[in-house]
Amino acid sequence: MTAPTPAPQLQVGLGTAEDPGSVHAITDTGTALLVAHYPASGAGRLHLLDPRTLAPVRPSLPVGHEPRAVAWHPGRNQAYVMNRGVQSYSVSRCDLGTGTVTDIPIGFGLIAIAVDPVADLLYTADWAHKRLHVIDLADPTKRRFVPLPSSPIRLAVAPDGTVYATLYVKGLVPADDALAVLRPDGTLTVAPIEPAHLQPGSLAVAHDGMVYVGALGGGTVHPLAGVHDPATGQRLGAVPSAAGVRDLAAVPGLSRAWLATDKGVQFLDTTNPYAPKTLEPLAIGHAPYAVAVTADGTAYVGDVKDGTVSLIRPHVANLPLDAVATLLTEAGFDTSAGLGTALRAYQTFHGLPVTGRPDAVTAAHLTAPGCGNPDRSTTAEFVLVGKHFKHTNLTYHLGAMDMPFARDDFTDGLKHELIKVSFDEWRAVLGENFHGPFEFTPVADPAAADIVFSVGDDPVFHDTGWFRTVYAVAKWGAAPGWPKEGGQLPIIFNRKIDWDAPGYFEVDRHGPDFRHVATHEIGHAFGLDHGKSGNVMHRNASWYRVPKSDDRNGFFAMYGRLPFTDGVGLEVLPGVNHVAYSDCERHLVVHQPQDDGWTWRRLTADVGAPRMSRGTAASAFFAHDGIPSYVYAGAGDRAHQIWHDQGQWWWADLATESGGAPAVRYSPHAYRNGEIQRVVHGTPDGRVVRLSQAPGQGWVWEDVSVPGAAAPDGSPFAYVDGVTGLDVIVYRDAGEHLRMLWEGPDGWGQVSLTEATQAENPLPLTMMPLWGEHRAGERHRVFGIDHRQDIRMYFVGDDGAWHTRSLTGELGLPECSATAVQRLPDDPAGDTWLVAFADFTGGLWELHGDGDTWQVRQVQVDGMPPVGRTLLSVWLSDGQRHIAYTAANGNIQLLSRPLGDGEWHRTNLTRVSDVV
Q: Looking at residues 547-568, what average pLDDT do you find?
């Protein structure tokens, strides 16, 4: 590796010749450097410097006594400076927009800080009391504590909200050096760090999620820098540092870091996390203590004796331009429109600084060892080849597996075991409850295999020459017939690699991890292309062995027809039921009976309709003449309708059909008022819109918002007033009240039912769906879930006024996670309501009542899996009632029973419909 060149180098002093002061902390905001400095008096100041010239960009701000750390909150445009001097023990909040500084008192024990800008939290480490302070930045008086087994020294927060803390107590016997991992759900894992008395301190989270830990060392224990698994905190590998590590910073986009040590600034390469490497330190100043790295790889070093900030420019890439063009082409980026265009596309895809030049960061990324398959240069989210297996009983064959450069005890049996483990990691993504879980069977005849593994040679291993090492390749182009049965997909591992299997041998050699590469290439075989950093399918990933979020999303998109929303049901013909949901690719999927079983179809794909908006549900209802119909929010947040007529399915964009109906927020609700079919929905700007279509006429839309009515914050639900024959719309408003709009002969009126029943102390409503109805001669019944997770009913009493009741409180029910409501007009027991609800343990219950008195019964069926989502569906068919829900195992469950007495019958629609 070529050493990064320190020259040309800039250096500025923030103190005076007589009193240079100390720089303990530097942070990069993207446009400025935040530098904490204090002189001998300890009076701290926060300096804002130009990253290119190190000149001040505005006057410095006064902070507390002896500032030692700076954390940056981009959302608030605020810097948080930790003051550790005896006169402070506080955090200074510096608003860079206004220049104001406010003090957040912490107390004795303060030693480190970190900001989670997404959760809007400030974490401070309290070494004296062995705990973390978690401070709400919207109101810093709101705090909680997280106890730790030992004293925290430094903190770092990952993008997903995971907090890492190094722990140690100097001189403790036995030593308790460790890395603590605090996850967003509150669970805490503590991984010991050896050897004892290492004194771990500085922390950084790399672009791919790996955690870098620097240590001071002590006694006979040499200081070192380690790479740790972000999930467990366990150390994967380590390398001695030149001296005790005071600070470290990860290079954005690369597996690299800079260390500030007592003997200078040192470059760390973590391409192989099991065997990281360092270069000789660069002597910059007398006591380097703080280090930061910007997106282009420029490093900045603060000195505690000289009071200086030094700039180390990244070395200029020395790759010939024809080599850059070759690397880009092999990575899947067309250079015919110009090298700069291809470079910008590559940089955008991989989240690198978009310079259009082969700068040092881009060159290092291009030449990093990895997979020989090209990228697809459209998005950094998971991408698909567009092909995937249609069967789940896959076969594979192991061809020549000789590895001349691997260790002698790396047997073919172990290679086979590692490949089986990699297959199992992908199977675990869907779980055993997935219909037809994947089966992987080895076969002796390669012609009978879906996938053929071998260790050998391939042109892609040579084309890059000395510029890039290619571990393996999945040969899509050499697989005629793939992925159909009978097509063999070759996966070739490079025979010239010194393959290793960390954790499978007593002494590791720290060569490339065969198990990781097998998992990556099997992902290609399943149809996944390269995706985001920090995932198995990243082109330069070198150590992840388990598919991560991006990998899982792509795998689900191809093989997980399992629902992302719960099933919505209705009877389309006597005894014929439909159950519809949004699948992992946001297609509208409908289950329906066929012969003696069930089948399914993806309606949006079949008719060429836009996919559903993420997280929304379809509204099922009958259009004219009993035609089954579905309305949903699709691409561009437009309302769409799919319906069945004349033996086929049809699709219409209701925004276009109605002459420009506004965009949909949340999910629309479709219903009928006599022969008129209608749709209501909220809009992003807070209006309520109703679309209508009378028989033989086109769709029209109208704004039915009422002055004085707060905007909806949830999906509206509409029904017909049985007395007036006009519409009623209920919704949760922006104040979490239950709001009702009613149509009158002269226009619309409105009321907050929460305010109307204020004397009965109703709680605000959650975002769960509302249900309501009114029949001639009866009064309104509206149901929702409040913030106590109670089923709350609003109704008009005999006194003509609105009232509210907590059915949960009255009947002693468990807390409710989901509800659905239906009328049972043909029930022999009388004209009754049916309320189905799920509790938080996955139990399913039903309430029967006349709207005033209620009876409760738990729904129990042999083998019934617990409810797993937040929406239920209840409907009536020919002599039966039905409940549909998505179980915790991801399967759609259909429960059916007679309208009178009788037992529930369960059908697993996912399995009987053969969904793949």
A: 72
